[in-house]
Structures are given as C-alpha cells and as structure tokens.
Amino acid sequence: MSQPRYQPYTGPAAGWGALRAVTQHWLDSKQPFKNLRAMLKTNQHGGFDCPGCAWGDSPEQHLVKFCENGAKAVNWEATRRGIGREFFARYSVAQLREQSDYWLEHQGRLIEPLRYDAASDRYVPISWEAAFALIGNTLRGLDSPDQAEFYTSGRASNEAAFLYQLMVRAFGSNNFPDCSNMCHEASGVALGESIGVGKGTVTFDDFAKADAIFVFGQNPGTNHPRMLEPLREAVERGASVVCFNPLKERGLERFQHPQHALEMLSNGSAPTSSAYFRPCLGGDMAAVRGMAKYLLQWERARPGTVFDQAFIDQHSDGLDAWLAAVDATDWAQIEEQSGLSRSEIEQAARLYARAERVITCWAMGITQHRHSVATIQEISNLMLLRGNLGKPGAGLCPVRGHSNVQGDRTMGINERPPAFLLDALQRRFDFPVPRQPGHNTVEAIEAMLAGRSRVFIGLGGNFAQATPDSPRTHAALQQCELTVQISTKLNRSHLMHGRQALILPCLGRTDLDLQAGQSQAVTVEDSFSMIHASYGQLSPLSREMRSEPAIIAGMANALLGSQPVDWLWLIEDYARIRQLIADCIPGFADFNARLAQPGGFYLGNAAARRQWHTASGKARFVAHALPDQLMPPEACAEQADLVLQTLRSHDQYNTTLYGLDDRYRGVKGQREVLFVNAQDIRRLGYEPGQQVDIVSLWDDGIERRVRGFTLLAYDTPQGQAAAYYPETNPLVPLASVGDDSHTPTSKFIAIRLQPATLSARIA
Ligand SMILES: Nc1nc2c(c(=O)[nH]1)N[C@H]1C(S)=C(S)[C@@H](COP(=O)(O)OP(=O)(O)OC[C@H]3O[C@@H](n4cnc5c(=O)[nH]c(N)nc54)[C@H](O)[C@@H]3O)O[C@H]1N2
Ligand SMILES: Nc1nc2c(c(=O)[nH]1)N[C@H]1C(S)=C(S)[C@@H](COP(=O)(O)OP(=O)(O)OC[C@H]3O[C@@H](n4cnc5c(=O)[nH]c(N)nc54)[C@H](O)[C@@H]3O)O[C@H]1N2
Ligand SMILES: [Mo]
C-alpha cells in the first residue's frame, strides 16, 4: 500500500503546472500531432465544442480557447488506443471487475459493438443489426413502456437528445433519468418557480460589466478553468469577486494565465478573489439570509437607499412574506448554521449592497444538499431585492457541468416534461404522447431494484459509478433483463450488467462524423444559452463506431419501424433533425440558417428580458424558513463524527480519472484520502496519515462503508470533511435526496470513522 504524498500547493492556479500537465496528457494520447491540431480547433468556429465543461466562450475569434482540463478531455477521447474483440477475449467480466476505474477507461476507445455471453462470462462481437434487433424485441416484450429506463449523460448533442426523447416518447414513456438529476436539478426547480426560467440569465459579456461577482460552492480552477479569466479581469478592474467555500480552493485565490508569456516567465499571478468566506457545508442559505437581514436593516434606517423599489414594485411579488421570514430568523441560528460570524456576513452584505450590478454563480456546493432549492431561491431573493436581474452586468448564473447538459434539457430530456413540449410533439408527429411523469435517477434505481423496471439504456455516462449508494445501484442494474451502454470508453457500468447486455461504441465530440459521405455537425448549448455547432476533426479509430444519432436511429427503427418518422432517412443529414427541432422547440426557428453565425446564436431568456413566466407573472420572492437543523433526522446526528462532502480532484472528469493527483490540493498518487481538520483528527483519537474506514449514517438498517482511507490533516473548517467522488459514492444513501429536486445529497453525508479493517484497493 503506497502512502499518498501530500504537500500543500503554494503556486497559483493554471500556470506552469497546467502546461506540464497538458503536455503529459497530450503525449500519452499516442497521437500528439493530430491532437495538437484538434486542440487548436477546440471551441473555434468550424471546430468542435470542448467535451469538457459547459462554460461559454468569449465571442472573440482566433483566441486559443482551451484550458488544461479541456486539453485532458480532448486527449482522453482522441487516443489511438482501441479495445475490441481481442481485448474482451483476454479478460472475463469477473476479471475486469477486479480492475480500478482508472485502469478500465485507460485501455482505450471501444471500437466494435459487443454483447455479453454468459457461458464464457465475456463480451463478444455482435453485428449492429443484431444488437438493434435485440433492443427492439426486448423493449416490445415489456408489459409496459414504463418498465424501461432511458438514461442520458450531458455530453449528448442536441440532435442525439432530440431523437432519443422522440423515440422514447413514441414508444410511450417519460422515463428519462439523467445526469442533471444529480447535478443542477435544484437550480432548474428553484429558478423555474422564482423567475420562470430554469436556466441562468447572464451571458459572457455580462462578466465584463459586473461590479461584483459572487461565487458560491464552486471550484472553477479545476472544473471551469476558463471562468478564471473573467474573474481575474473583474478583480483587475476593481470589481469584487466574493467566494463562499469551506475549502480554500486555489483557483479562487490566485490565477496565472498559461497563455500570457510575461506572467509565466516572471512567475507573477493575479488574485482572483477579493473576499473569501468559509461557511459550513450546507450553511449558505443561512449566510444569505444573514446578508438579507443587513440589507433590510440598512433599508429601514435609510428608506429608498438599499432596495430597488422601482424594480420590486413593477416586477415582483411576495416581498412582504419573505421579509417577515427574514425578520423571524434569529442571528444565533444564522451564525450556527452558516459557521460565519455576524461581522463576516456584514462584510459580504456590504460588498453586495455597494455594487450596482451583481452576478451570482454557483455549482455543486449549492445544488447537492437537502435544502438546495430553498438555498437557490434565497440567492434569487437577494438578487431581486436590488433588481440584479435583467440588466447588463447582473444576473443569476448556475454554472453547468457537462458540456451539453443544458441543451439536453432544452431538447426534452426531462422526466417531468413541460406541457408545451408534449403539445408540440403531438402536433408535429401526431402520436399519443405520454403525459404521465417518468422516473428521475433515484426513482429509476428504486424501480430497477424493485423489479418494476427491467431494461436500462444509457446514452453515455457511467450510471453505475455516478449514482449514489453504489452496491444498491449495481444490484439494480444487475437485476435487469437487458442493459445497453452507448459509450466511448470502458467503465464499470459495462461490468454491472443485466442478464443480457450490449456495449455500443460511439463517436465522441472530436471524431469526424460522416453520414452519406458528408461530414456532419452537431450542436450544443452552453451555460449562457448560446447554441453552436461542433464539427469533429479526427478520423474515427474504427469503421464499426457509430455516431450517437445513428445509434438512436438504429434502435428506433428496430423498435418502431418508420414511425413517427423515417429514422434512417433523418440521419443521412443532421440538418433534417434540426428542422424537426425547429418545428418543436421554442427559440429554434431557422435553426439551420442561424448555425452559420460564428460563435453561434443566443437562445434568449425571458427572465433576462424581465418577462416572468411564473405562476403570478412576476418574479417571485419565495419565503422558506431555514432548516431546523442541517442534519436530517435519519442521519442519527448524535452519532456523527463529521459531515462529508464528495468532490472532484483536479485529475478527473466525473467518474473518468485522468490520473491520481490533485495538484492544487497537494495530493499525489492516491485518491482514497479523507480531508479532515487536524483538530478533528486529534479529537477523534487518530493521527494524520492513519487509515480509517468511513461509515455513513442513515437510519435504514443498511451498513454503508468504504475501507482504508488515509486521513489528511487539511485546512477545512472543523467538523467538515471532504473526499473524492466516485470512490465515496457507496456512502451516499439512496434515500438522502434534496427536497423537490430529488438530487442525492452528495455534499452532506453524516459519517463516523472507524479504525481501518482493510487497506484500500490500490488504484
Ligand atoms: N475538469 C473537470 N471539469 C468538470 C468536471 C470534472 O469532473 N472535471 N465535472 C463537470 C460537472 S458534471 C460539473 S457538475 C461541474 C462541477 O463543478 P463544481 O461544483 O466546482 O465541482 P465539485 O468538485 O463538486 O466542487 C464543489 C465545490 O463546492 C464546495 N462546496 C461543497 N459543499 C459546499 C457548501 O455547502 N457550501 C459552499 N459554499 N461550498 C461548498 C467544495 O469545497 C468545492 O470547492 O464541473 C464540470 N467540469
Ligand atoms: N458523490 C457524488 N456523486 C456525483 C457527483 C458528486 O459531486 N458527488 N456529481 C454528479 C454530477 S454533477 C454528475 S453530472 C454525474 C455524472 O454522471 P455521468 O454523466 O453518468 O458520468 P461521467 O463520469 O461523466 O461519464 C463518463 C462516461 O461517459 C462515456 N462518454 C464519454 N464521452 C462520451 C460521449 O461523447 N458519448 C457517449 N455516449 N459516452 C461518452 C464514457 O464511456 C465514460 O466512461 O455524477 C453525479 N454524481
Ligand atoms: Mo454535473
């Protein structure tokens, strides 16, 4: 068992370390020269959209528009290594299960369709036609279309997502569990009710105009590196960047631009934040409530100077009820829950009140809690108070994860689809569109576990590892009659399979997609509702790989024949799919013509125009009480040693591990580590460097345990621990979900430590 090396990182974010890392991954792809050309095409007009995060692009042309982690994503996908029949003849599935997640994906791209052969416990080749026939026949054999689950991960293009939802709805189900259920679902739910649009209201340009940018629960240095640039520019021009994060994340403190020669040579760097607050996990709602208390106090002292009364009168409702809730919340509860002092909260409130134009950004530190919807609505309330919505340089910005997760929702990947979408499909295609709500991710797992769902199809992603309560999720998949994974690389979801199973190898964003001899573009939507085209650049590794739209069309054709559309005709030219999107989805009129525009086109956002598609036709102040206590009753608060958040390292893309280092947090060569405050380690009777088992607490009689994690004394507030996802997903109880969002509470898990019973598997 190798001890992890741990040495605090003192350099800035990005900089030389990033350049070194890019070079390593680039050479490791085994085709460096092709990939250099590919990297330079990233996010360029006529090139491909970065398969990394959903941050938007500067509209300027010719800039180099990729970051370290985008380069990792490109090199990971565009590798020359491929795995087909020889590889799968060498290893049984049982043997593959013994391998680490890192090893599995590192073997290379999947290059031919495979089916599971129970007799040999191996994946063996199958023709595409036979694979489609198996899917069509199995689905048709179900008692009801609702016995199948159709998962989507957020890399699927708009074209793929539209076809997929059309196939599933024509079949008769709304069972669309998707990665968004584990990600920004709470943002969609909260903003939908508050401002009538479940998306962010800002665009790229707004960042240059903001006087203050608040960043809650987000680690952009790792997960959205291109966001560091506007943050740094904001600080340089005197705007404040105000961060809320229990951890001191390096990218939020200092940033060195890898494309800025002078700064690199002089080893200079610029601060990215002007104030940094470190709340407790789950404490942001209390912090924002405290800020609101100050604003209210100041407004009462000098009426008309703090609130934007004209905006409030013309555009909002519910202010009085919310202010009553603000008044009713006492400081003791605010300080206790937020972990911040009154004077810190006052400072944050001043930074907010002093700025004419404020943008508020957030990510998983806000959305993966029980009270996430309430927290986001509290943020929205604070923003409405000063009219920080629908004016330049201001607005709400949930920073999305996967590069097209927002677009997939726009295309109808939604287990609770809006009526206008269903009406449009019914009008356009004339079939009885299913109206009953379908399953989200957690409901899908429960349905498979209970035997109510018998088929699982995954359009990308890694369902087995990304979801909570891993042993139960694995069992759920293994109970299925058929599991189908449409994937680029081997992962654990292929190994936790149903009685019958298929692996369907698909093209990725970087791959050239030829249909009927013509290269095809697909489209995506970024966090700023910009739609742009993406053209693959590299010849695929094998002729046996198919594009996602082609795979969906093949399945749909086998399942439904040419109803309600001629699927095979559609995929000869993706412009035909876009025409259907234009016919059905608001904002996409003239879709094909508008794609020619460099940088893409803006889908528009009603709330950004101060049009409120809410129940009352106004922007709504929504009043919630603070949770009585953050620890849910099922979590047996009195037995908990610590609260755990599960987060990403610098060397991973969700369940894909690029390496075992976490540069900015100073961890090298290991991922089975638990970040804990040094005083907590001592209080609990351990030593830094010691190994422990982590047991999570949930009152359902199931023991959830991961073994052999090394304790790292780390700068995190007392009581607040952190460890990497997905290694700690076995600890997240399936039933521990957000109110109204059903998102697993991956950032708040009550845990106990126990002396290690076994060393962790060496990754
Ligand atoms: N390179 C790379 N890029 C990615 C991804 C990746 O894995 N790798 N994943 C993509 C996806 S799908 C997503 S959703 C995004 C995720 O982007 P992030 O949301 O940045 O991802 P996490 O690593 O989950 O980080 C959560 C951050 O919130 C903080 N935090 C946790 N709990 C709380 C809390 O209660 N309050 C506050 N204020 N802070 C808290 C943590 O300390 C951490 O800094 O990134 C996307 N981009
Ligand atoms: N504990 C905990 N759990 C979490 C989170 C957390 O913070 N903590 N975060 C949650 C979040 S925010 C998210 S978004 C989910 C992510 O959940 P997913 O989206 O399901 O997971 P990924 O790891 O992104 O999926 C990786 C796999 O996608 C496949 N793939 C990659 N590119 C492509 C492509 O272009 N096409 C196709 N068809 N397949 C492709 C590859 O085979 C790869 O193995 O995880 C969630 N789970
Ligand atoms: Mo995500």
CATH architecture of the largest domain: 3-Layer(aba) Sandwich
Largest sheet: 6 strands, mixed
Low-confidence stretches: none
Q: Strand portion, in percent?
A: 15-25%
Tally of DSSP helical segments: 32
Ligand roster: ligand MGD, molybdenum atom
Mean pLDDT: 93
Shape: globular
Sheet with the most strands: spatial strand order: 6-5-18-17-16-7
Judged by helices, strands and strand pairing, the structural class is alpha/beta
Distance between the termini: 10 Å
Instruction: Evaluate the radius of gyration.
Output: 25 Å
What do these coordinates show?
The strands form 10 sheets. A 6-stranded mixed sheet has the order 6-5-18-17-16-7, sandwiched between helices. The longest helix has 18 residues, at 284-301. It has 32 helices and 33 strands. The radius of gyration is 25 Å and the shape is globular. The chain starts with a strand and ends in an 8-residue tail after the last strand. By secondary structure, the protein is of the alpha/beta class. Helix 9 crosses helix 21 (372-385). It folds into 4 domains: 13-77, no CATH class; 82-183 and 404-433 and 440-459 and 471-596, Rossmann fold (3-Layer(aba) Sandwich), CATH 3.40.50.740; 185-399, Dimethylsulfoxide Reductase, domain 2, CATH 3.40.228.10; 633-755, Barwin-like endoglucanases, CATH 2.40.40.20. The model has no long low-confidence stretch (mean pLDDT 93). The structure holds ligand MGD (2 copies) and molybdenum atom (MO). One ligand MGD binds next to helix 25 and strand 17.
